[in-house]
Structures are given as structure tokens and as C-alpha cells.
Amino acid sequence: MSKALEGVVVVDLSSEFFASLAGALLGDFGATVIRVEDLAQSRKVDHDRDGMHPPERWNSLDELANRNKQSLAVNLSEPAGHGIMNKLLSQADVFLTDLPFASLDGNGWDYESLCKLREDIVYARGSGFGPQGPDRDLPAYDELAAARTGVMPTLVQPGQPPVYTGAGQMHTAVMLAFGIVMALHHRDETGEGQIVDASLFGGNMYSQSLDMQAYLAMRDERFLEPVSRLDAGNPMSGPMYPSADGRWVTLAMPDTDKYWPSFCEIMGLDIDDPRFDSHEKRCGEHRLEMMQVLEERFSKQSSSHWRRELSEKRLPADVIEKYDYPASDQIAALNRYILSLDHPSHGAIQSLGFPIYMSESPARLRNTAPCVGQHSAEILQERLGYTDAQIEALEASGTII
Amino acid sequence: MTKPLEGIRVLDLTQWLQGPVCAQYLADFGAEVIHVERPVTGDGARGVRSIKALPVGDWNQYFLVINRNKKSLAINLKETAGQELFYKLVEKSDVFLSNFQKENLEAWGLSYEKLREINPRIVYATNTGYGHAVDVNRPSYDINVQALTGIMTRQGEPGQPPIYLGMGSGDTYGGIMSALGIMLALYQRRRTGVGQFVDASLYGAQLFMGAPTLQPFLASRNELYSTQQSRKQAGNPLWNRYEAKDRWVFLCEENTDENWSKLCRSLGRADLSDEPRFATAEKRAENNAALIAVLDGILKERSAGEWLEHWRSAGIVAGLIQNLEEVSKDPQAWQNDYFAKIHCDEVNREVDVRGLPVTLSKTPGSVETLGPELGQDTEMILFDTLGIDWDRIGELKEQGIIP
């Protein structure tokens, strides 16, 4: 099997989940991703800073964000360590980082300086708020970016606290990887490298881009306050109704005319009910009334009843599941969206897999996330031409692990 | 300025959102994207009349923004002559992209096997509902696929209904996944000279979107990740949403003793740092509900603006929880081109649109045009790209192959 990014070398100096994940996506498709861990920094990747990710038997988020990488652990504040980093950068196709500008400038890893080491480098930065503007130095925290982006107050029901979903950072990770491959493509065409920036702010905007765009065009107050679920625009597309067992059902039938006859049949509605007998009535003057009727009907039967009925009629609607559903779903497994693995250190585990399928160069798990410094000696020897004696000396002085 | 995807031609046989937005990302960065539509009605998204029970207004931003920077070709693919014409375009294109169902594509003679035979360099990309590996005979819209992932059930306060992550939230994510897949295939093609089949699905993308909680759930089966968690029980009270006198803010500080005493001082409550219940990180986590109640009480006393002012000078990280109106005026967004302005012919004025997803310093993307009129480029594509003469174009019109 071939690899889409065969031969591409990424030097990854990142610590935020989304930026590291962009590197993992490149590694999944065959890039050589060298994760540099700075021994001088006490700052460790902390997935539990929100207090909602207690320690696990294995650090699954770290595993996802750093799989298919090699680890070089080096003290970057020592001259020898800094020199190793610069040698590595002079061979890199991509420099991936989420460090603040001040820290990059201070280390001589700003774009202009790196161009002197490697003229055509693709300089990729995962940022909080983008490369420009008054707040470009704010920390790259997804919560801060999500708060600023506009839908946290309105995704909820009226009176509820704003909600944080975490989807924005996931957009940013993929946007960053997309930008990097685009820049590599351009470099191979023209010989020109450049800076790529994808921010959490931008990612959060794209994760809610339809709401955002609708507001930009329509400027209506209705986009600024939470709207009750029983005040949806279309009773058959978007709202959710509780079933008899408390599990919820959601409907996605924007073209209500198309589905009306089968829908009436399973809901026990009169197809000719004059209140609801046209799309205009259902989504117009009688929409609130119709939602009340559906609320009452759905509450009479169990979620499994509704799933069976909806699926027999091939209606786009489903029961709202919990995470245990995909964990045991064959469709997720067969597509390798969720992998069952025999992990070298943790035994039988499940992990998220690969959201992109490629027929000739599929993503592969070549190695699980490396231990700190697992590949230091190998990288120094094979890539940078250090001798055994030199490597031993660097280890002895604590410059590398 | 040049664009990174100049010279790449994309046949964008898609409708609604996931496929079209994928092609939008490519078009924003210079690919020649031809939105292929059926004559007369075109892409269903052209018919969007209302959003959130509100009339869509004097311009259809839904279609026009998702399909910006594109051309439109109207063609009848049900006819053999239409398919033959399309094959000629496949010969001269780099990417074929579709989010139509497999059965439609097969009926129109547009399977991967067929198009690869015509052009081995073609990158054949699909956006499916449930992935390439299994034929799932079930309609897939954003919300009913999101429902299956489990991500909705864990949002919001306990006892509240599940939360949908926003209009098109999964489609948009599937779209960027697909754009990344296409770029990977194009990059590899430079070396190998051959294309391949790429798929990104609504289900796969949305499972990945849940990673911050789904991945630890898979690892631990801890219900913490799969069920609703109250903000009143946040494990780190210093990293939480709070309601000030007038509005909500997000406080983002790690749970360290230093941050805690800094916060107490900034609240004018230095005495709190001596409170034994909250004296260490562990205690603050253990007595989180009590601490959150205390902070709720204090923060309600002043406006968000006042607190942020205090926090800025104390070096405490926090931000306003804005609404869409506020972000639409946010200079940080405008200065990074996350919004753009573009002339809209439909209403003959400048309109605001969402901007670019990623910033490239030397070959930036741009918004040049809003979405095309149905079939507006059909004749020119046939004439310029395929070299078909005007007589033949006339015949194709008479046969109803093109409008």
C-alpha cells in the first residue's frame, strides 16, 4: 500500500490537542511526523485542565493526537538542544506549532528565520485567534474561541446556561491539515513555501457557519436568543420529541410533502387533516399546533417502536443515541471510524479511527503514540548524522532523553 | 496573486450542503469548480425559502455562499448523450465530487470504475451518509446522522433535551474532511500519476467531531463522557461558564493555587484563598459545587465588562460569551478574513459572507463571486473546455441535454 504523504517530514512542536491532532492526521496518511518534546518546559499536555477528563488507564486523547508520530525529547533551551532542533528544521518540509508568537520569535523560529534554514518550508501554525488583529496573542483555548463565536447562548433551550460543545477545535484541526497539504501542493508546483494559519476562532466560525451566515444575511433577533424546541421552523425537520421511554426522536424531513403520506401512517395522523394538509400550513400558520400534536403522539410509544416504524418507511429520522451506540456499531467498525486494537501496553482497547477513506493509500496505524524520547537516538543518528559517542554525551548531559 | 489550486478542475456534482461546501473550500483557493446541476430545478438548495421559520430574505444566502467562486453547468445526465458529454469533461478534469446516492451515480453511468477507465488520473470523491464500506439503505441528513453518534445526548444541563450542534454542523465537518481527502489524493497523484477513490461520510466525520469526549469514552466507558454534566459540577471551577450581573463569561484558568489566589484577589475576596475547603487543587475539585455556588454569588454582583477589566489587569484568562451580532462586528474576525464583503447581483448591493477557513500567507484564498445562476456557464464550458462547436451546442439544446 502506498502513502499519500510519502517522504513528507513534519517537525511537530505543539502541545494543544487540536494542533497535535492536525499532525496526527498527516501521520495517518504517511508523513513522517517528529514530535519534539521540550525537556526545558515543565508544561505538559493537560487534557484535564477543565477538570472533566479524569486520569484513565491510558491517556486516550494523547494517543489520538500523537499516534503515528516519532518522539524526540530534547532540551531546547540548551545551545546543543537548540542546535539539534535547527538541524532538524533544515530538513523539514513542514514546521507545525502552536507556540505563542513571542516564544517563536525568541527562539529564532519565526518564519523569516526558518526560511534561512529551509527556504521552502511550510510553516504551519495552529492559533487561537489568527495571525492578525489585536487579539492574536490570546491563548489557543477552544473554550475562549467558542465563547467569542456566537452560538453558545442559542444552542440551548430558553433560560439555560450557554453550552460548550468542543466541535470548533475539531474543525480547526482538519482545516489546519487541509491548509498544510494545499501549501505542500503549491510548493511542489512552484518551489515556494509559506505560512499556513488555522485558528480556533476560525474553526468555531466554520463549525456554525450556516447559523452565522443566516444571521449575516437576515439580521434577525431570532438568531440571538434561544428558541424553544417546540417553536421550530419545520415540525418535521430539526425538532426532537421524547418517546415513552424518555429517549428522544429527531426528524429530518425538510421536504414535508414528500414524506407526509408515510409519516401520517406511522403517526396515526389523518392525511387530510385540514390544519396540516400542505407544507405551507405545516411550516406556517399551524406549525406550533403540529408540534404539540407530534409531541403528544411520540410520547405514547417507545423509542424502539419509533425506530422500527421510521426505518420500515425509510423516513429520515432516528432515535438520539448515546456513545455506547457507535461503540458497538458494525457500520462504524467496518468503515474503520472506530478501531478495536490490541495495544502494546494497554491490551484490548477501542479508539477512534480514520474519518477519511482512500482506496489506494488508506490511513494506517503504523504506531501508537510514542513514549517521550522513544526515537531520540534513532532520529539523531539516522537523520542528523550524529555518532554513537555524540549521542551518549548528549544523553549524559541531559540534553536529550 | 496566484492561488494554490490554480489549474485544478473539479466536477462538483453535489447538492445541498456537505458536497457543495467541500467544493467551496477548493474553489476559495483557486480550483476551477463546476457545479453540475440538473436543468430547470438545479441544486435543491436553490429552493431554500425559509430558515428558522423566517423568510430567507431578498437573496438566497444559503445557496449563494456555499456555491461561491463556482461555475454552473446544467446537464441532463439521465440521457446517454448527457452522459457522453459528461465523460468528455471527466477526461479533462482532476476531481469528480458527488454526494448523490450510489444508486443515482450508477444509473447515470458515473461509477468509480467507469470514470477511472475514462481518466485514470481522476480523483473520485464521494460524500456518503454512512461510509463506503457498507451500503446503508437509509436517508442521511445532518441531524439524523448526528443523532446516532451520541454527541447530542451529552450536551447541556442534566434533564434538558439533547442539543443539536447547529444547522449543518455535521455536513460542514464532512465537507472539510472531504476537502482534506481530495488534497491528499491530489498530492499523491503528483508522484504516482494516478487518482483514487476517496470518501468522507457524515457519520465518520461526526464521530470524529466527538473526539474530545468520544475518545475517552471508548477508552474508559465512563458515563461522565456520554451523559449531560452540569456546569454546577465542573471538575475545575476555575474553568467554567459564569453569569455576571448582565451576561455570561467563560473563565479559563488551570486549577493551581497561584491562579486561585490571583482570582480571589481580583474578586476583592482575598479572604477566600484562606478558606480551608478551597485551599488546594484537590479540595477545589472535591468541593467544586460549593465553590461554584460561591463564585456564582460573587460574579452576579458586577457586570461582565467590569470583571473582565479586573481579570485583564490580573492576568486571568476569560472572555465574554458573545452572540452572533457581536461576532459579526468583531474586528478580530474581520482582520483575519473570517468574514468578507462581496457584491451580490441579486440585490445589487454589497453583502457580508463567511470568510476563509485557513490563512495562507503567499497564496491566500478569496471570495470573487457569489454562487452562479443555474447553468450560466454551460455553453462556455462546452465551447472553451471541450471545444464543441456552436452547431453541436445548438443540437444538444434541441435534444434537451442542456438548457
Question: Would you write up a description of this structure?
Answer:
The complex is a heterodimer of chains A (401) and B (403). Chain A has 2 domains: 9-207 and 355-396, Crotonobetainyl-coa:carnitine coa-transferase, domain 1 (Rossmann fold, 3-Layer(aba) Sandwich); 234-324, 2-Layer Sandwich (formyl-coa transferase, domain 3). Chain A has 17 helices and 12 strands. Chain A has helices at residues 17-28, 60-66, 79-90, 101-106, 111-117, 142-149, 167-190, 200-207, 209-218, 256-267, 279-283, 287-298, 303-312, 324-327, 330-334, 376-382, 388-396; strands at residues 9-13, 32-38, 69-74, 94-97, 122-127, 194-199, 237-242, 248-252, 317-319, 338-343, 347-352, 356-358. In chain A, the strands form 3 sheets. In chain A, strands 3-2-1-4-5-6 form a 6-stranded parallel beta sheet, sandwiched between helices. In chain A, strands 7-8-9 form a 3-stranded antiparallel beta sheet, with helices on one face. Chain A has a two-stranded antiparallel sheet with strand order 10-11. In chain A, helix 1 (17-28) crosses helix 2. Chain A is elongated. Chain B is an alpha/beta fold and 403 residues long. Chain B has helices spanning 18-28, 61-66, 80-91, 102-107, 112-118, 142-149, 169-192, 202-209, 211-220, 257-266, 281-286, 288-299, 304-314, 324-328, 331-335, 378-385, 390-398, and strands at 9-13, 32-37, 50-51, 54-55, 70-74, 95-98, 123-128, 197-201, 239-243, 248-252, 318-320, 339-344, 349-354, 359-360. In chain B, the strands form 4 sheets. In chain B, strands 5-2-1-6-7-8 form a 6-stranded parallel beta sheet, sandwiched between helices. In chain B, strands 9-10-11 form a 3-stranded antiparallel beta sheet, with helices on one face. In chain B, helix 1 (18-28) packs across helix 7 (169-192). Chain B is elongated. At the A-B interface, helix 1, helix 2, helix 6, helix 7 and strand 6 of A face strand 3, helix 2, helix 6, helix 7 and strand 8 of B. Strand 6 of chain A pairs antiparallel with strand 14 of chain B.
